[in-house]
Amino acid sequence: MNYNTGICKPNPDLYTPIMMKIVEIKDLTEDVRFFKVKSLEGDYDAPYQPGQFMMVSLNDGAGEAPFSITSTPSRPGSIEFGIRKVGKLTEKLFTYKVGDSFGMRGPFGNGFPVEKMRGKDILIVSGGLGSVPLRSLLLYILDNRNDFGKFTYLYGAKGIGEMVYKEDFLEMLSSDKLKLHLTVDKDNSGYEGKIEEGLVTNLFRYVTDINPENTMAAVCGPPVMYKFVVKELLKLNLPKSNILLSLERRMKCGVGKCGHCIIDYIYTCVNGPVFTYWDVIHTRELI
After folding, report:
1. What is the pTM of this model?
2. CA dist 21 → 103, 118, 128 (Å)
3. Which end of the chain has fewer CB atoms < 10 Å from its terminal CB, N or C?
4. Any idea which fold 114-282 has?
5. Tell me, what's the pLDDT at 6?
C-alpha cells in the first residue's frame, strides 16, 4: 500500500490474494452479472493488459476460479468482471451483495499485444459471452482512439436476452469512434434497425475496403464460432499472425502449476489466453 497516494499496488506474491470489496453489481443477462470491485486498502492500480484475467477466491470454501478482466487499464482505480453463473463458486458469488468482499490474485496471462496493435486498423468479432473477455480491449481502444486506425466491431448472440452488455452496445451504435454491427440468431423483435437477425458471420458484408497487412482481428466466442469466423478473416487475406484468438475458457490456476490447461507444450493460462491463428494451426487441439 502506498499511503502517500492511497493507491493499492499489485501484490508481488501472485499466490497471495488481495481482498477486494464489491462496489457495484448489475445483471447483464439472466445468468451473467457485472461486478465492480476495489481493494479494501485503496484504489487498485495493477498494470494489467486487455485480455488478461484474475483468479477470484471465496473465503467460505467455494474455491477459486479464473475470470477475464472486463475493465480497461486506461480507467484505473477498480476492476470489473462479467461472470456467468455456472458451478459452485459462481452460484455462491451470485449471493454476494455490494459491500461484501472476496480474494483476488493476478493479473495472469499474456493479454492482447496492444503496442503491436497501435496504428493498425482493428476488427473485433465476438459471439455470446465472448464479448466479456473482449470488453477490456474495446474500452481501451475507445479511450486511446487516436492511437488506432479504423475500428469495426461485430457481435452476435443467440437471442436478445443473451446479448451481454446489450444496453452499452446499443448506445455505441451512435458513436463515431467505431463501426458497430449487432445480430442475433433469430427473433430481433423490437430492435429492428438496430440489431439484425442472422449469424455473426453475416455481418462480414460490412467489412469492406480494408488493408489486410495493416488490420488486426481479435476473436472470442463459443468454440464452434472460431472455425467460421477465421474462415471469413482468411477470405479478407489477413495474415495468420494478425488474427488473435482469446481462448480464456481453458484457464485454470493462472500460474501453470495444476496442468489442467496444458496442450502439447503450451500452458494456456501462461502462454495465453491470447494466441495468434498461426499458433493455433501449429498446436494440436488448441481450439
Report:
1. 0.90
2. 9, 34, 28
3. N
4. Rossmann fold (3.40.50)
5. 39
